[in-house]
Amino acid sequence: MTNLFTVLDALGLLLLCFYTVQMTLAALVPKPRRTATPDPDLRFTFLIPALNEARVIEATVRNLRRVSPQGRVVVIDDASEDATAALVAALAGADPQVWLLRRRLPMARQGKGQALNWASEEVLRRLRAEGCDLRREVLVVIDADGRIGPELLAEARQALGDPAVMGAQARVRIRQSVGGWQWRTLVGRMLEQQQDVEFFITRHLQVLRSHWHTAALCGNGQLMRASYLAEQFARGVSPWPDVLLEDFGSGLEIRLAAPGYRLAFLESAVNQQGLPNLRRFTRQRARWTQGTLQCLPYLGRLWRTPVPLLARLDFSYFLLSPWFNVLIVLTLLTQPLRWATETHGLLLAPAIGLTVSLLNAALQLNWLVRYQLENRLSAGRLLFTALSFPVYGFALFLSLPLAFKNHFTGRRTWDKTARHAEPDAAPPPAPLEVTAASSGD
């Protein structure tokens, strides 16, 4: 038993070292300079997968048409039961740049990836019929609650000015719920806040990955060159694989398709609603983790394909991360058994144990300070953000066993993320002051 605990502790300590190195590099490494000339001839087609999105779809379509007057907006209705299709049909009737593509049961509701593959094939057919140059056509995936500004497209023109860049990912920001909060909504507001902190940290990781061109595609704000999509379909390969993490898988497909293909990260943001509900948040993160588990077979292809070493290591670390997290959780959960059986694992000197604890605290403090510097939080909001970390960590802890349970029992349901109605002209993401207002979410 002691040997088992020793192995667990040693692996946990090694993973902590990897995590520390990764977070330190993410905090310190500057973003790479772009040298490509912006391509003014790029044209954007926005793909919006939509299932029961009547609460938000009109505002999203209008936002995209304002930001990109020359672009197209394609809404993929996935057999909605609400007024989504009717609302988009009305917009399409008044604006030829708005297209409505409708999927019907039983083919519909098979997941976001399948909807995107089906719709992009139809879009490519129409683009070819119009005589478009697919090298200068870019498909942009936007969630039904997504909002962007013109700066995103300007940055995309420069990033995709490099002909080797086949895909790009925008930064993601979380819009906080409007209004005050009650005690019953406190946990939800904490989760919303931490989701923005999480994407803030992800932004730094994406900058780090940009140095070896492996920026992860995250779905909302995902850009892909139409010529690459056409190549994949011609080879009989679906650009978005049939997994619950189809966006990450689509980035892997790009890097594995050809040695010279690259992925880029865009600092300009797409902002979206958060999930202010513990149960829904836990189910979403379980789906993400299960999707990562489904992507594990990519590991073999990754090491058989001529991809740069750092790119291989980066992707491999992500693909194995659910299993690494299990090791860390087992290290924590076996503590009562160790106490009961009076057995020990890896014995560390008190000074080393204290150093490890302080190092972990310092990493969290680093991101809190950096988040504060970017967002200029009030003292109350800063304290609220700090107190939210344990709530977020607890939610992630709950999602891990659920993900493994779903994976090994064969449950592959694509859980729909629910939205809430909000004003058409949603403000950019900014921290919400914590007040004792009486109104709820």
Number of strands: 8
Helix content: 40-55%
Q: Please tell me the total number of domains.
A: 1
Averaged pLDDT: 89
Q: Can you tell me the CATH class?
A: Alpha Beta
Task: Characterise this structure.
With 441 residues, the chain is an alpha/beta fold. The chain has a single domain, classed as Spore Coat Polysaccharide Biosynthesis Protein SpsA, Chain A (Alpha-Beta Complex), CATH 3.90.550.10. 53% of the residues lie in helices and 12% in strands. It contains 14 helices and eight strands. The chain has helices spanning 2-28, 57-67, 84-94, 112-129, 150-159, 186-210, 226-234, 246-257, 278-294, 298-304, 309-333, 335-341, 350-375, 379-408; strands at 43-50, 72-77, 98-102, 137-141, 147-148, 165-175, 222-225, 262-273. The chain has an eight-stranded mixed β-sheet with strand order 3-2-1-4-7-6-8-5, with helices on both faces. Helix 2 (57-67) links the parallel strand 1 (43-50) and strand 2 (72-77).
Please name the defining characteristics of this protein.
single chain; 441 residues; alpha/beta; Spore Coat Polysaccharide Biosynthesis Protein SpsA, Chain A; eight-stranded mixed β-sheet; 8 strands; 53% helix; globular; disordered C terminus
Helices and strands in order, then pairings?
Blueprint: H1 2-28, E1 43-50, H2 57-67, E2 72-77, H3 84-94, E3 98-102, H4 112-129, E4 137-141, E5 147-148, H5 150-159, E6 165-175, H6 186-210, E7 222-225, H7 226-234, H8 246-257, E8 262-273, H9 278-294, H10 298-304, H11 309-333, H12 335-341, H13 350-375, H14 379-408
Parallel strand pairs: 1-2, 1-4, 2-3, 6-8
Antiparallel strand pairs: 4-7, 5-8, 6-7
Helix pairs in contact: 1-6, 1-11, 1-13, 6-14, 9-11, 9-14, 10-11
